[in-house]
Hints:
Blueprint: E1 30-33, H1 39-49, E2 53-58, E3 73-75, E4 81-85, H2 86-89, E5 95-99, H3 105-117, E6 120-123, H4 137-143, E7 148-153, H5 168-174, H6 177-180, H7 199-222, E8 226-231, H8 232-238, H9 241-250, E9 267-272, E10 275-280, H10 284-293, H11 308-313, H12 315-326, H13 331-341, E11 345-347, H14 351-356, H15 358-362, E12 366-371, E13 375-380, H16 404-412
Parallel strand pairs: 1-2, 1-6, 2-5, 6-7, 7-8
Antiparallel strand pairs: 3-4, 9-10, 10-11, 12-13
Helix pairs in contact: 1-7, 7-8
InterPro entries: CoA-transferase_III_domain (IPR050483), CoA-Trfase_fam_III (IPR003673), CoA-Trfase_III_dom3_sf (IPR044855), CoA-Trfase_III_dom_1_sf (IPR023606)
Pfam families: CoA_transf_3 (PF02515)
Protein name: CaiB/BaiF CoA-transferase family protein
Amino acid sequence: MSGVGYPMALATRKPPHSTQMNTTALQGIKVLDLSRVLAGPWASQMLGDLGADVVKVERPGAGDDTRAWGPPWVPLADGSPSKQAAYFQCANRNKRSVAIDLASPEGQAQVRALAAEADVVLENFKVGGLKGYGLDYDSLKAVNPRLIYCSITGFGQTGPYAPRAGYDFLIQGMGGLMSLTGRADGEDGAGPQKVGVALVDIMTGLYATIGVLAALQHRHTSGEGQHIDLALLDVQVATLANQAANFLTSGKAPQRMGNAHPNIVPYQDFPTADGDMILAVGNDGQFAKLCAVAGHAEWATDERFATNPARVANRVVLIPLLRQATVMKTTTEWMALLEPAGVPCGPINRLGEVFADPQVIARGMKLAMPHPAFGSVPLVANPIRLSASPVQYRQAPAQLGEHTAEVLRDWLGQGR
Length: 416
């Protein structure tokens, strides 16, 4: 790993897992990132956080689409607005940006040369989109047989939908997530809802990271590279988790239940005297403690509520009873009573409250990285804690083409 030109720019408030150690988990691994928007960049950022040398190839003059997905815009050091959206910041640290025109023969030759030096290529073009440029897996495998080439698409490399473009919102609908999300039929505001973040893209980025790490280990033992075919729809279906298991076991499609849980009761939001709180009661012992704190110990021995299966069967009776009790105290008062009793509970925080939470602060989940144009940029830390090869924060999200000459020198020896 060259590391030339990487300033060791750490957080102004350094998270406990961010250090300037010389050894990182993926030190020496070179990643050529041809992806844009979120799923691919999320994976390459994860690999960069773990120590890989990630080179992000962007369109000259425009760059990754998300650079323009504002407002809000990242302010320049003097406080004036820049032309870089906050969205771009979330998935592009620990990368060097090169501006290369893939539509030109010269640009294609440069990318092929970079791929010949790379361990991993990430791309999220439409199926067959890179073949005309000679940058598809088969073409690059011919110049680098050890290459791990990860393709991220909406629907995969095979199947009747393979040629289609795929977007997170579309996949949340097609993959069943929206059928499970939202208020129940008959309630005010009922109807399918998407999740408030692009969760399918995020999960696909994480699966891509896992696939790349597995392929690197396989290459370590076999010497062989391989192609990873990853589809957003596959990921969405795979992560239906217990809801898919419920359906496949019973043949009955789960219904939207708002914040309620299909298998556990009480496990949802409840009103308080000044707002709302969450109760996440996972077993009968916790339910008994909840009943005692609420002043209704008799509920824990009531045959309708004594066991979780009974509570699931009788939720329409139990939930109104609990709501009548929870509105009698404030959220803070309930927290003070329930937490010492061992009843899982919590507030429903806005983001300002999230980043002011003492636990979030103690874990260093908010950080700032120095930036040559912006002064510093606020970012969310990586949650992985590795004791021997911790995450490092070396490079703030780069300006478009900031490292073109540097990378061509480091990887290809040009300009020396």
